[in-house]
Design goal:
424 residues; alpha/beta; UDP-N-acetylmuramoyl-L-alanine:D-glutamate ligase; Protein-Tyrosine Phosphatase, Chain A; nine-stranded mixed sheet; six-stranded mixed sheet; 14 helices; 37% helix; globular
Length: 424
Amino acid sequence: MKKVFKSIIAFKLGLCARAVVRRYRPRIVMVTGSVGKTSTKDAVAAVLATRFFVRKSEKSFNSEFGVPFTILGVENPWSNPFAWFRIVRSALALLLLPNHYPNMLVLEVGADQPGDLARILRLVTPDMVVVTRLPEIPVHVEAYASPEEVREEEFSPAYALAAGAPLVISADDSYACEYATRTSAQSISYGTPRSARVAIKDIDFYDIEGRVAGMKAVVCIDGEEKNIVVRGSVGKTQLLPGVAAVAAAIAFTISFSEALEALGEYEPPPGRGRLLEGKNGSTIIDDSYNSSPAAVEEALETLKKFPYAKRRIAILGDMLELGRYSVIEHERIATQVNAAADVIVAVGIRARAFISAAKDAEVLLFDNSRAAAAAIPDLVREGDVILVKGSQSIRMERVVESLLANPADVVKLVRQEKKWKQKV
């Protein structure tokens, strides 16, 4: 019964959203892929805002509910009936009264179940699509017959583009490049290959007075080179959203310099490689938003290369929604965990596989994030660099909170809303 009620609400919400789009006719940019959508959406919106009145998806609102919420310009009402009433009122006001509505919507779209993106595409058709990564074993694969089906669905917004419309793709992703050849869109590639339309090179840590403060690199377009810096987060993956945004700028004739200037204020969202001050003079890499094999591999590479570290600690929770690939993926990554960390902390039943290749590393096991949060702070030393990562349901932000040098920094973490806090 609950599922039927939810479907009815989603249908009616979708009708309102579609009517609003038809009335105001904003340009639509869709950001899709299995990794890095929210960061890319934020970066793209920052650049396009130099020319357009932009509204972007809040946080990671990318579902059949989240996309209409963005179109209507409302917050998630959760289960509050009065908040739902306000949504109805807002929708009617948009449809019946004059409004200064955005002329550009930057929408993050994602799929948890087969058909999710098809339902979103019935509401709105993209004018440009940005595809991040389509990994070998994507998150949510347990709901699909194969990884290929996940990749096809994540890429499906590109098939809805008109001939010649811009399609921004990762040149580092072989699947995105292959699928792009099936469309009649105009592909604009970005990434580390020199052949990319917007290429990135000389990737390194950005430091200030011997302390890591972010990432830096050189971006190249048609032989012209400029520096890019992302402050407050670490990892190659924190630079790529900005590069994707520069590629998106090309489609709207926004200059290279103008795009990079707009990115000067860009900051990756919470829980995406964010640098935080930890207890006892430690440094936290807060990557607690979510987890998947591709994302864990990138995070471990960052931890391994992180300079000025006395000890490297990997606190890793379960990777969920992998279905039949779960055991093999956790075991496969174990070797990389051992190579990157001096101390390995596994949180959850599945994460115990991360220690299977441990040799010289110290190993700690916890059943859940609450237990880990209670014990780990006492083990932290000056100069430690601590990576914290796990799937959303494991709630690894609790571990990050326990490690903060300044409790007030809790506002910088993911899932701090009252509704999340009330969940077990």
